[in-house]
Design goal:
single chain
């Protein structure tokens, strides 16, 4: 079983910054990728950023140049540094982990979500 613990959400004014953390623990053989999705009320969940085991990262166009994803492999923890936040960044942010389990299968697990609210 894999657990993801998220932290770092909150309320910030437009133009401000927040850093989200996602710590993974449990039974996994290897981590293939970690990332963040977000879902605003009435919207579908969308990918925000993902970082792969080799270190390459992808971002949604709407956050490029403002958000940076990083990972501490020793701690199995991913971080999302969010700068120049806008009201439209308001959403629940969900961490996800893509990993290889003890049976050799690739599995995706999700965190419980953390609220990010950006006031104008």
């Amino acid at each position: 079983q894999v657990q993801l613990v998220e932290s770092g959400g909150g309320l910030v004014q437009a133009g401000g910054s927040l850093r989200l953390s996602c710590a993974a623990s449990g039974s996994f053989v290897s981590i293939n990728a970690m990332g963040w999705n977000r879902q605003a009320p009435g919207n579908q969940r969308e990918l925000v950023a993902v970082i792969r085991s080799g270190g390459s990262a992808d971002y949604a166009d709407s956050v490029k140049g403002r958000f940076t994803i990083s990972r501490d492999n020793a701690k199995n923890t991913a971080y999302l540094q969010m700068n120049s936040l806008k009201p439209e960044d308001t959403a629940v942010y969900y961490c996800h982990l893509r990993y290889r389990d003890v049976f050799g299968s690739e599995v995706v697990s999700w965190g419980q979500g953390t609220q990010v609210t950006v006031s104008s």
